[in-house]
Amino acid sequence: RNESRSYTAPIRVAFERVGAEVDVHEIWHADVRAQNGWGQEEAVSVKTRRAKWEGRWQFREHSFTLLVISLEKMGAC
Fold it and tell me: pTM of the full predicted structure?
């Protein structure tokens, strides 16, 4: 995590083949000081989406991101 900039990181999975898409659960707000409260119950919330998997991920600044990666069994050698 970085408070002021996004960054891309490669993600490798050993011994399995990764599916074509990934489930993304992300907590983020444009203002790092944003918080939930009266009248702003959903200012900062978890956003969930599916995205194409490319072996790396761009993490947004000051976010918490959980990636759920589907694995496909590799054939016997």
Answer: 0.78
